Amino acid sequence: MVDITDTLDCSGDVCPYPDVKSKRKVKKMKSGDVLQILIDYPLSAERIPETMESLGHEVLSVEKTGNSAWTILVKIK
Amino acid sequence: MDFLYAMIGGLIVGALFGFVLQSGRFCMNSAFRDIILLKEFKLAKAVVIAIVVEMVGFGIFAAAGVITLSVKTFNVGGSIVGGLVFGIGMVLAAGCASGTTYRVGEGMMGSLVAAIGLTSGALATAYGLFKPAKDAIQSVTVGTKLTVFGEYDAVLTPVLMIIVGIILAVVIFFFWGLPGFKNKRASDEPLIKTDDVVTQVFKKGYPYWVAGITVGIVGIVGYLVNAGGTGALGGGGTLGITGGWMDLSLYLTTNDAVAWAGFIILGLILGSFISALIAGEFKLRIPKDGKTLLIQLIGGLIMGFGAVTAAGCNITNVLGGVPQLSIHSIVVGACIMLGCWIMTYLLFMRKED
Predict the structure, then answer these.
(1) What is the pTM (predicted TM-score) of this model?
(2) Which chain A positions have a beta carbon within 8 Å of B282's beta carbon?
(3) Could you report the predicted ipTM of this complex, rounded to two decimals?
(4) Residue B280: which of A20, A51, A68 has the nearest Cβ?
(5) Which residue of B has its CA nearest to A66?
(6) CA gyration radius for chain A?
(7) Distances from the Cα of B74 to the Cαs of B26, B70, B78, B143, B233, in angstroms?
(8) What are the tens digits of pLDDT across the range A50-71?
(9) Judging by beta carbons within 10 Å of its beta carbon (0-12, 13-18, 19+), is residue A2 exposed, middle or buried?
């Protein structure tokens, strides 16, 4: 198990807030921190991992936890 | 066109449209916005591919005499002001006309509120409070049916569409398709994964090029089915969203019969619902705060004004008119993108850092 440093709950958020919030959040975090992102919007669930990787962070897992619900774990570079 | 033909045809085409929109996450608000916000071009590429597929398809069927093209009159003020206003509204509404409608099928209640705003704004602009403003903006027109290559010509325009479409298709394949093929060959991946077709079609989001091609094909099918009828219930034309919502609203409030466009909306929501349900992506949900909901309503209203002023929403103009090389639709599309960028900058980018 990884230690989760912080959680960002984006459930209920509309396009593009999940993307924008997670981008802003990781900027404030330290190297090695792990961010857990909770999300219920399909497009962002696909796009946030791509955005994180393009920013150089490591996507540890993308797990579908229920109907239109995903948990994304990102390790900050 | 029979009522029954409009109903069954509209529902089926709408359902197909909703299915591919949901599976392809096809939303022009996301597509345009992410070009500057996330430097992400996949959805924008999907939009371009859909346009090219339709350009060739509409061109072939028009050249064969199966359909009659529906190039719009170039309305200078309407296209510029309507496009800009629509672009600004769709950022606030968190979805363009089609994006908002398919998300209703996913269970996003914020999008339902935006759709109600869109309908009210459109009706007020077509018939009510905002009609004088719209009429004033729309007073200047240039030509009758102006295309990129001059006035629309029943023989020449379809041929030019086919030629331009094929050139664009080749260019797109060269720049976007080939690098992908080379990567896959280098990594020994199969070009098309055929191992689990059911999962690919029903359970997963589509890659951008599949989204673009399927949306384009549904657009062509819609035109062909609609061309099978006559009068107010059909008679040929591209798919649209805003007119359909207005149609449903008029049915509810004035008993005006539901026509083709209204059934497209009902089918679209149903198709998106089915697609989301199968993929495990359906959930009734609301934004966390009331403010977001209010902004979506206002965004919808603004979008409705823009759509009627521009003689069509993003689907009618960008997916329907641009493939026909219509100057009006190209200007509307460019202005929607510009409006979207202005609002995205103000809302999401200015405060960053």
Answers:
(1) 0.91
(2) 67-68
(3) 0.85
(4) A68
(5) B280
(6) 11
(7) 27, 12, 9, 7, 25
(8) 889 988 999 999 999 988 899 9
(9) exposed
